[in-house]
UniProtKB/TrEMBL annotation:
This is Alpha-mannosidase. CDD domains: GH38N_AMII_ER_cytosolic (cd10789). It comes from Bradyrhizobium quebecense. Belongs to the glycosyl hydrolase 38 family. Keywords: Glycosidase, Hydrolase, Metal-binding. One of its GO terms (biological process) is mannose metabolic process.
Amino acid sequence: MNETDRESDNPAVARIRGRYPQYTRRRLEGFAERLQQKIHADRAPVTSLEIAGPTERISVAEALELDYRPVALGETLGPLWATYWVRVAAVVPEAWAGSRVDLYWDSRSEALLWLDGRSSQGLNPGRHTAPLVQSARGGETVNCHVEIACNGLFGAFWNDPQAYALAACELRRFDPEASGFYFDYEVLRQLEADRDPTIKSRSYGTVGETAQPALDRTWAGRLLHDLNRVCNIADPDDRVTWPAAREILTTLLAARNGTIAHEMSAIGHAHLDTAWLWPLAETRRKAQRSFSTAVALMDRYPDFKFACSQAYQYAVIEENDPDLFARIRAKAAAGQWIPVGGSWIEPDCNLPWGESICRQFLYGQRYFERVFGARSTVFWNPDVFGYDAQLPQLMQSAGMSRFLTQKLSWNKFTSPPHHSFHWRGLDGSTVLAHFPPADTYNGSVQLAELRYHASNYKDADRSPEALYLFGYGDGGGGADETMLEALQRMQDLQGLPRIQIRTADEFFDRLAKSAQNLATIEGELYLEYHRGTYTTQSETKRLNRACEAGLQALEFVVAVAAAWQQSAPSAQEIEGLWRTLLVNQFHDIIPGSSIREVYERAEVELAGVAEEANRRSQTVLATLCDSGGAGWTPVNTLGRARTEIVSDPDGVLRHVAAAPFAAGEAIAIDDRVIVAADADGFVLSNAQLTARLDRTGLVRSLLHVASGRESFASPAARLLLLDDRPLDFEAWDIDPFALETARDAGGEVSCEVLSDGGLRGEVRFERGIGRASRLSQVIRLDAGADHLAFETIVDWQERKTTLKVMFPVACHASNATYETMFGATERPTHANTDADAAKYEVPGHRWADLAEPDFGVSLLSDCRHGYSAFGNQLALTLLRGSELPDPQADIGRHRMRYAIYPHQGDWRTADTVGRALCFERPMLWAKGQPRAPLRQSFLTTAPANVIVDTIKPAEDGEGWVVRLYESAGVRAAATLDFGVDMSSVWMSNTLEDRIAAIPTEARSCRLSLRPFQIVTLRVFRQ
């Protein structure tokens, strides 16, 4: 029966066709479902199913040696995180000769198919089939293994941990004709279904909505009419009727866009969190599942390209699955596998210090260059909770001039004004930035999503080019056949963007070439969401700070030893410690948003790095000191002179003075602390400050002696509790209404004087906090000190509660200033606009400052990152009590230090940067008396706003590297004086390339620095 015959059976159909679209669309959906069932219509049971386990996460070689037992479908598995291996044997039916044979698998969990000892493809919820034989002989026996991981794509957070079971395992014959018919039809059906104008909002937090234009009415009418014709003339159960129907579809698919259309560059992606709702150990297998799937798809779809970041994940595959790694390298050489990102992992960009970001780029780019022969040009970091204003400069210094992210589409207060723009950092460095307008990095190639992408693009007036990332992500997975089949039919289909699979570099090249007058965005990219991540899992954050300080101190003493031809660890030995730290700076580890197992491991690893860095430092210092000497030598590992009261390893208080990067010595001091007590409280005073404390621990007054100014407008150091019940994402968020619940911590307080004057005055306060917590706080003033310090220990047992400390500063300013990576960022103290109001909790490093032109107050912190300033209230967030995804988050003992530093002038003239640096990083102690290398400064700089942050051995073993920055936001003519003879000094970059020789004179060189400029130098000794 031909088409005409079928349509003429009932003339009434022609008279009323197309006048009931609501019926027709449901009919079209049903027809699509019937077609889809034909893709794997023929099925056959397996002949043998055997299981071994539960086991640990083992290699395939170990799995092959396991003892297997028969197992039946329906058997339940577990517990969560358990591993099983299943051995499958099946006979291909004779009638399937010449066909592709797939395995259908469902264990309600993640799994990995192994063929002939090779990782073949991931099998996840939603991805149940994998090819076993591309062209069967018919009658042959096929064998395979399946590695079962008892967890879902997202761990157990959104899944029943008892749900894992052998639900299905069978052979299915793939029908390419049915598949082609289905995808031809389904793409067009989705297009017609998205015909009407709509108002859409995709992301979690977006405050803006996108008005999507309607499909051209003539084209939409043609689609509905002809798709209905397909249903009239074709029967999914009668293959003879298919050709005529497919002719109609072919004609429709040939409809093209006009001369000008939105240009979509699409690339496959499988955003894989290095840890999150699964432990770090499971990431290796997630990478195997995702990466083997991508490689398998490349074999079947030569145009498929897959972008993959995070050098760490490559290194894990290189170590654990060298066969898969070789396949990845081959696909990269063929141009299908696209390494991107240039960093060791995708790091959080608020909490790590700038030197850590330099190491992310250094080790990441060196790895990509070694393995793939090229450095990345794109910093690929789509899922991070805000971006520091120094990142453009750091990217440029690491060879990356392009930047991709997506997360700011989640903003809760304002919608980002651009998707394509130039991003300018603190020093003026600029990179080309792009936010994919689909508002997701996990695109599913649903037609409505592609049309949203085009209509949502905010810079269509400046460029037609935008990027689309497709593939399941967060838990990994990547693209699948349905996405690639759909894209083949969508490339230039009328009503859709003009789509082509391209690499990230190809996209950015097109954007740069086509763009007309792109806007420039200045400064940080602040995410108006996930503000709790500055505080959650505070012990991990404290250990991160300890590791950063310990590793930088180690590298300094190693550089000194190497310059004086003393034995010391190599750069490669130290790199291993750095890599452990860098992994734990992943954007779901250090922010505090992972499960308990992640932090149990992270805290052990980070404590180990800090301990090992200190141990190695002591070993090196032993070679730089006279081992026969008596007593202890303080060693200043910072690039600035310091004098302070410190306690040596024997517990003896000393007043110590030390030149930059040199050993110090105990010296006399005229100043003394006086402690007086009465019924109202305590007075601690020295020549710089007078502090009045009441018996509850409040600071009633802090007088700055030199200026005569009172620091506080009302009692300060108030401990506040907030109800912390965010509407979504508990570990991630502090919602604004939490601030409305702030109340004094209360509780009975006991107090005592610990040190009654002389070199140090101390008063200790102990109190209950909340329902079940205890706090012990020592308020300290040292002789010669210009700051009042608070050393706080909390046994924290509260849930859904936040603890903040508040200081009402006696200053009025419209902005407060916060230390960020290698610089400082101003943020409002008011809520004039929605963007201002959004910044009720902000990230920072060692200090925040609120000041008038002639006087201000700095709040210093050794290991806390969450700050806030509203009006004159300057506050630091100390602890949270979130329960999801880790019910035990932050329970236990916490130690933290913070201080108040009142000063004349602003933070620049008061040298807040230097004060905070010394406060956070204590001096090292070495046994014995210093030898010549430590008796003089290894390096000094002038003026004071030029901070030498890092001295390290060069990665290639030749000389050492100096990284410094201008810290005050002003231009500087810097002088560097070295303590050893050098043959040459070179301007370099983060990757330690030699760029240009710098003139030297004796042991000195000079530099001209832009405001907030970061400089890396290579120094070579004679």
